[in-house]
Amino acid sequence: QVQLVESGGGSVHAGGSLRLSCSAAVPTFLYRCMGWFRRAPGKEREGVAEIDNGVSTSYADSVKGRFTISQNDAKNILYLQMNSLKPEDTAMYYCAAKGPFCSGGYSSWGQGTQVTVSS
């Protein structure tokens, strides 16, 4: 497992932007499959965005065109750029990583960062 620490959450008005960061304690080039997840109060955790092998990305339908996931291997950081935020994006956001070289499922998780979007 790898230690992951999220930051960048906060409170914004609808239409605003935030950029979440996830710092990894080990080189991200070893962890090529990472993702962002979120859990809203009273709801199940859902996948928001994933990046595979550092290149291929996928997004939940609810965030397509508004969120962008990316990795900075030089800094060992995973990002989630969130634009045009909506109140329904309010949730605790978590980053996660699969095993080295994309082995196994998501086995490492951060502690989460809160995003609150007001109307």
Any descriptors?
four-stranded antiparallel beta sheet; mainly beta; 11 strands; 52% strand
Largest sheet: 7 strands, mixed
Helical amount: under 10%
Low-confidence stretches: none
Estimate what percentage of residues fall within beta strands: over 45%
Query: Average pLDDT value?
Result: 93
CA-to-CA gap between the ends? 38 Å
Give a description of the structure.
There is one protein chain. This protein is mainly beta and 119 residues long. The protein has strands at residues 4-7, 10-13, 18-24, 34-39, 46-52, 56-59, 67-72, 77-82, 91-98, 106-109, 113-118. Helices cover 0% and strands 52% of the residues. The strands form 2 sheets. Strands 2, 4, 5, 6, 9, 10 and 11 form a 7-stranded mixed β-sheet that branches. A 4-stranded antiparallel β-sheet has the order 1-3-8-7, with no helix packed on it.
Brief summary:
By secondary structure, the chain is mostly beta strands.
Give the helices and strands, then pairings.
Elements: E1 4-7, E2 10-13, E3 18-24, E4 34-39, E5 46-52, E6 56-59, E7 67-72, E8 77-82, E9 91-98, E10 106-109, E11 113-118
Parallel strand pairs: 2-11
Antiparallel strand pairs: 1-3, 3-8, 4-5, 4-9, 5-6, 7-8, 9-10, 9-11
